[in-house]
Hints:
globular
Amino acid sequence: MLSVETRHAIHPDHARTMGTQELREHFLGTGLFAPGEIRLIYTHYDRFTLGGAVPNGAPLTLDVVDETRTATFLDRREMGIVNIGGTGRVSAAGDAWEMGRGDVLYLGMGAGPVTFEGDGRFYLVSAPAHRACPHRLIKLAEANRVELGEAATSNKRVINQFIHPTVMESCQLVLGYTQLVEGSVWNTMPAHVHDRRMEAYLYWGMTPEARVLHLMGEPTETRHMMIANEEAVISPPWSIHSGAGIGEYTFIWAMAGDNVDYTDMDFVQPADLK
Ligand SMILES: O=C(O)C(=O)C[C@H](O)C(=O)CO
Ligand SMILES: [Zn+2]
């Protein structure tokens, strides 16, 4: 079963007026991982689409998505898949890849229908593409590892870059996940914006009672959302995206937009956040 929800792009002047419920309706993705279903959110931010596929014993195939009006979803798109569950299998374009927890699969434009099987919980992101880059399975050991932050500022963390120019080619997708060192709670602090790219986060690896206090909004008009395990945040290009965990967490970040330069960020120091 496939379900698709559309999210429109929100102007920052509008976002400033929103209460908690409205912020969550526009920027939070909940219930993406339902057994036996593929659930997608099709956004109007760079046409970036995110979602989950949980085969739960029976194969699930992602093929036609009416929103794109193409013969198959990946006809003019590329896709990143992260397995956040048990071992599973993904097949497309006559190939099949076994994916363990934390493995990332890149599927290039024109890969055709994609089938998910096994015990995986597959997080999916996709953006329009202009050429077919080779499909590739990337294990954590092959990712580019960047250590950032300090224990003294509670932000010591490892940025694992998977779909990233130092590892492989893509059209506009950039993807990885960030792991906090025990005792550190902050991701992406100091915060930043990148008006050239939108971003989406998926928080995972959390206990059911844990929450992340996610900060969003323009740097001088910050807002927050409390996020539970396996919930996603859609971050518009004008928004900061940062979080502090009440409990352990990891998060997958993925971007689409004008460039694939991970370091192209406009930093905002804590003293300048309001
Ligand atoms: O902890 C961090 O810092 C991040 O993981 C930052 C994200 O990767 C990001 O915002 C990339 O633009
Ligand atoms: Zn960012």
